[in-house]
Specification:
Four copies of one chain form a homotetramer. Chain A starts with a strand and ends in a 16-residue tail after the last helix. Helix content of chain A is 28%, strand content 20%. In chain A, helix 3 links the parallel strand 3 and strand 4. Chain A folds into two domains: 124 residues, Rossmann fold, CATH 3.40.50.720; 161 residues, Dihydrodipicolinate Reductase, domain 2. Chain A contains eleven helices and 13 strands. At the C-D interface, strand 7, strand 8, strand 9, strand 10 and strand 13 of C face strand 8, strand 9, strand 10, strand 11 and strand 14 of D.
């Protein structure tokens, strides 16, 4: 059994990791840390885990993670970069769900995250874990940077177009909508049900931290200059991201078969039949991305609909997928999660 | 007192007309028709109106509307065009909330609505009632076509840019999100809370009936060829539309002051301070459109956020605004509706 | 014009007072205080009020309220009792929406609220403002204690039974459900949409502060000993309270006509036709309580369904109703609020 | 592998059976019927099942079920009673999720369901499948009647009190709240999100079909006459039932340990620690019932909070639990479902 540790087990990505790992046949959750809840049983904070998890929260210290084979960081940004080196030195693999190691350019990272990077020397080694793009690198990685939720939905939706040079990459638009769990388990006014419920709004239009991450991912698939407008919105539901992507075609091809071919071997990317609309409820609780391809009125604008569960394929599920790869397991084990509908 | 009649009083736009008109100081609701509920008191079907409306539903026949000064059609498409002529002949003004008289090109109307138009001879006379664009014509009109909900939010958002020739009108994108009340009070599986709740999806990407209406409205503001991609989405809330509009700037101007100037005399269009995000909850229940203007990272893409309550400024409120104009009343009377927050 | 002040204008009852008072024909909002937002325009914090309120938040000091005729406290418990005396000394009427003056027994107040009462000498003078019970006293009051949200729904539902001695008052049960706005505008984990949405739970079963308040109100209507079990629940919606009340009949009467007679002159209490179910959406945004009376299978258990909007009849609307009374205005002025449906 | 058939696979209990059975290691879904969708792939109607279910809907005829070992009826009431006999004759076990075989008294069944029972001779053989009460009988059954959703939550909550004769069984109150999925996948106005969302209401107060079922279950646990008041409510969420149960204690005991002892061997009934509140989100998607025991202010009223997911422990999950028992499998296999939180 693989011994897994979770740093920051009280947030939504942390408890989602626990939901998945407690049933993972090859994994034993050996440690879950929480500065605030150290000493408390995990299932006291999360009654949904009663009967599935008898672990007690410990403090987030290397000492408490020493016996792990792999450690997940389900923490706010800025924590993983201070602990990764010590864990790697102990031969422990590190899978970071935060943004610390996502950007390869530390200067850009510091510009967007507003602090100095505590561990720039490891940035180069970190592998950006979007398996549909760089599976081989993930298998060989010690330090894994899990993609953000928006970047996962947007890249999986745009990549086939860029990989085949079919669109004007200087004019890409990603209009994205996220459920409120994306804001995390933080006591903030804007996340109150009275504020976020029964209402819809955009946020971070001036510039969101996922913009440089998406741009970096798209650049890897094209030689042209990427111009991307990314507008995130908050939609009154708990789980789910719906990315509506717009691009102008420069060549005429059968987009439906292009997408089906691109993802035919990808179990977690499901290209819907022509004419379909993707619905976040159909991926709720699962590690799947569903994609629908449209070319309205046969014009030269392509519209891609890409949906994921922000906490699963957008975070914890994809992190376990990366763990399976880097630990030499079947990529899909523990991730047979049928969506919860309705 | 103006005697108003409502044809189709059992739908959401009908009951919203009643919510507004029952408190309108210059209007008396003289008749409300419903084929299904004829003979039943309105407040028996809508207990929310108890104490405010003692009218009894009658059958949708000219005879029952004879005493009205103005008649609203809050009906499905296809009804108003069969009754408008007879009402006008009686000197009764007609305000249609459905789509029957919105498109000036009857061939295009028949293409999108799939039936022959029953009254093409009146199309030319019908006035498209977006007061912020053609107030004078509305004042003089006998037959008024109220804009659709999406077209209201999209046109108010795009028009200043087109009126000043600031953007590439061949590449406009309108990514719109609507609450479920936009689907009307119809027993359909897709509108069940178990289906529409906690989920987000696009629909009608191949082509939605509001596309030609928006295009027609935008064409009036420009001499260039309009190219518009319109993607509507369903968001899990009851009221509200959020339009996120994208265009490429061809000139550099102070967009914030451009919008503030364009709407400075428009009481129902509120341009938010620079840097704001528009939130549908802040217009819930009111006849107001709130607009926020953004130019992400100072690039050449302009992003306009335009929000309305689909049942008020997007339907019944705007219809009453048109009535005020055509009946020679103060445009704002009866529409002093402070948004319901939270 | 009556000059009104609001202490604590940033909470939900505060902004709801503003929604109502900005359209009140006899009232001018002269001051709104907020320690945190002093110096900021109210409509900057609440864009829903743009165009309706140009007041700037001031600090909560007597000096800033000196010109008011009446001051509302929309504050957490513990504030009004420290400022009421000084305001009364200035001849300013005080209407407290918090719990400071609701309980006539200061010892019980201190037991349930856990602090010493700062102004016990005024408790005796304070009038509990449930107009349907003590209208005359409210008219004559200087210091008004507005009922809590649950107590309003429960008392209006139970009182007719107790006033006529029809039930076993030693065995009353009030199973109440509230929308999340009842928790106020406070950044708390339990009020996050991800926590409170799509879920239902009871809270405070061991003892809720509204229990002694309800008990005190019921005791005034009976000579027997009141035994009440009160269980509040949180339901995933923003506004509304639904009280389901159970009592055992000791006499046989026509309950429907009893309730209709009791409330026939009460404009804000609406007894629904026999066989109806009360639905919170039908009072949303209005100052009305709707009540349905049931006697399942003709047995000896009476079930009363009583619904209100917790922020209107359960708080700010009822406070304005009390203000109208104590300032000698028409009780209903400014409260003609048609429910927002859907 | 056990071959399972599902009659009525297009409703919510049907698709939930598919969610569970597609991952059940001992079961193969051999047939799924739907009169309306015969000939269509199941995953075309339910994209959430893409990749998990390649079955095609067939017509609901015995012929199409001949190869099954067990057949589930996830149909409206009235279907199972017309097909059960033929299936049993073929040696096929029948598990009915509808109400056809729940009541042992056919006269009472006909009174509440308003039609003549098509197969009264099988009523006596049918086993009411609440495993926590009659596990042995279920193991031996050919024809299984699955409990309703409300009856499951209410019986599991009340039974320990009745089994030990601790309360006045003549005065039981069950105030129950259900998510909207309980109304099924039927196009009805009252289930529209615009109607059921953001609102709370009681329904069926005069008499609900689950009343006689609950009463029958409670009578089995006591010799005294059962007097039950049952009031169901609709709460604006999709999944979950919260039963708030009230009874008057006639003896004084340690209720917490009584409940813990009663259910200590029941994996699907989880008695929460003293002082807890049960929250439907903590059982969402799982087959678990969580129960909290309260005795407010140490009085003689006991308040039991009992929560389930209406589609799992309240329907499809419990049906699979019964199947496991009657097919001689481990009772828990295929039901290791960690709740989806948040």
């Amino acid at each position: 059994m693989i011994k897994a540790g979770i740093v920051g087990g009280t947030g939504y990505t942390g408890v989602e990791l626990l939901r998945i790992l407690t049933l993972h046949p090859e994994v034993e959750v050996a440690a879950v840390t929480s500065r605030a809840d150290a000493g408390t049983r995990v299932d006291k904070v999360y009654p949904s885990l009663r009967g599935y998890c008898d672990v007690v929260f410990t403090r987030p210290e290397i000492e408490n993670l020493r016996d792990c084979d792999v450690v997940f960081f389900a923490t706010p940004n800025g924590i993983a970069m201070t602990m990764a080196e010590a864990l790697l030195a102990l031969g422990i693999k590190v899978i970071d769900l935060s943004a610390d190691f996502r950007l390869q350019d530390s200067a850009e990272w510091e510009h967007w995250y507003g602090v100095e990077h505590a561990c720039p020397e490891l940035i180069g080694e970190a592998v950006y874990a979007l398996p549909e793009v760089n599976r081989a690198a993930i298998r060989a990685a010690r330090l894994i940077a899990c993609p953000g939720c928006y970047p996962t939905a947007v890249q999986l939706g745009f990549l086939p177009l860029l990989e085949h040079g079919l669109v004007d990459v200087g004019n890409l638009i990603a209009d994205c909508k996220s459920g409120v769990s994306g804001a995390g388990r933080k006591a903030e006014l804007s996340s109150l049900m009275s504020e976020a419920g029964e209402s819809f709004k955009a946020y971070g239009v001036a510039g969101h931290r996922h913009l440089p991450e998406i741009r970096q991912g798209l650049r890897r698939a094209t030689t042209e200059g990427v111009g991307l407008t990314f507008v995130p919105h908050l939609t009154p539901m708990i789980r789910g991201i719906h990315a509506t992507l717009y691009a102008r075609l420069t060549k005429s091809v059968d987009l439906q078969s292009l997408y089906e071919t691109r993802y035919q071997d990808e179990k977690f990317v499901d290209v819907l039949p022509a004419g379909s609309h993707a619905d976040t409820r159909n991926v709720r609780g699962s590690n799947r991305c569903q994609i629908a391809v449209h070319q309205p009125q046969g014009g030269d604008v392509v519209v891609i609909l890409s949906v994921i569960d922000n906490l699963v394929k957008g975070a914890s599920g994809q992190a376990v997928q990366a763990m399976n790869l880097t630990m030499g397991l079947d990529e899909f084990i523990g991730l047979e999660l049928v969506p919860l509908y309705p």
